[in-house]
Amino acid sequence: MPPAPAPPGGGAAWRRLLLLLTVLPLTLAALAFVLQWRGGGVDDPTARWPPHAFPGMAEPVRLSLPSSDCSDVLAGSSGPSFPYLRGWSFPSDSGAGLGLQPKVCVQTSTSAGLEQILPWLFYHKVVGVAQFLLFVEGRAAKPNVAGVLESIPGVKVVYRTKDLEDQQARSRIWNETWLSSFFYKPCNYELFVKQSLNMEMAIVMARDHGMDWIIHLDTDELLYPGGAAEYSVRRLLSEVPHDVDMVIFPNYESSVECDNIKDPFSEVSMFKKNYDHLPKDTYFGMYKEATRGNPNYFLTYGNGKSAARIQDHLRPNGAHRWHNYAKSPNEIKLEEAAVLHYTYTKFSDLTSRRDRCGCKPTKEDVKRCFMLDFDRAAFIIASTASEEEMLRWYNERVVWNDKQMNLKLLRKGVLTRIYTPMAIVQGLRESGVFTSVIAAGQPAVNEKLLPKKTDAQSQNVTRLGNLPIKLRASDSKASARKILQAELVFNDTDVTAVPPMSPPGLDDEHRHHSE
């Protein structure tokens, strides 16, 4: 039977349908192009927030900065901004936002300027730190710096005054033996003692503020909460078992790739991993390549920093660890999280460290001043060499400018790239956070500059008179020993302060293989 004839007009209908399907997408694409070209019809998510908005400000405006040597580093550039921080907000008062658990306090002793302190401080606000206890001296205690710091919610400023020194000289740990071997020595030893005394005071202050954890950091260190369910130190510590008293963060050391770094937190992304985070065969197998003729695997310390759960009888055990008068702390070491140590990241760090220390540039005298070998060598070079010789030495010993070697060590896992802190700090800057904070702090700065005004008028300043009663020292040793209200039931007379220590060297390889 012959096939039935096709209905008349069927081919024409199909052709019209194909034509419609072809023309419709082209028409829609052209319409979208016209609307975008005219600046309408397309919702740009980044346009929902005003440019350079400071979180928490009702009416963000472009604020002018006072003349300052840190304005270039802290101000946003003319380049594209990182818009995702515009929705973040920081508490407008020190009590806000503290319902989140656990509450984390960071304590530091610093003489740095705003160009270093502000990125450090707000980065840690972003990762969940609730309270900051800043023990300031030198440049950090100047009105144009301290006034800004005092105006920031969640920040307490403690000045190093004669009253404070007298008080600490009568404190508990000053009258104990575990720290005494560091007394009456210059430079790094003096700093180490100051840090420990400040940490003792900070424990009580943090407890009075309702904090759960306390961490001592320097302002050239950033906490990296690797391994947490979110990029948050608070979240990281919330997952620590309740019977753990101390958490150790192994440190990674910055590995700069040029000699003209201006802002380390925004420019450095390469770090050398800690011994504790590497297979031992890799560590010792790549030791010579990783050390590059320097005295040790790291330029400076390699024993990390620690967070302590705030509890009865807690005390510092040097700047790197905590201890307890009543028991041996139960501690764990984190397997992914770290402290990022930005050490010798700027060429000027050589001379700035030299200028802070009055030791003679001899191999014997520098041992009185510095605990670590590289610090000693750097001090001698900075004190005896010309600037050209210093720069050459800096490039040979500090700067990682051999790209092939860098790639080899990155593949082996000795070096690693970490970009998140860089992105956060750059985003804070481009969003106008730092410039807004400086501008908002100018009334406090101006008030400090008035001759009849005193620092004690600020609510964020701690002076001897308004310290918690548990921190005020008495003239008797018996009363001084009640500072933390501890009853000695644990014998810790053999415990000594943990100083900054270098990582294991090749001499330790044999011991490693014999274990």
Automatic annotation (TrEMBL):
Residues 1-29 form the signal peptide. Keywords: Signal. The keyword Signal applies. GO terms for biological process: cellulose biosynthetic process; response to abscisic acid. Residues 495-515 are annotated as: Disordered. The keyword Transferase does not apply. InterPro entries: KOBITO1-like. GO terms for molecular function: transferase activity. This is Glycosyltransferase-like. It comes from Panicum miliaceum.
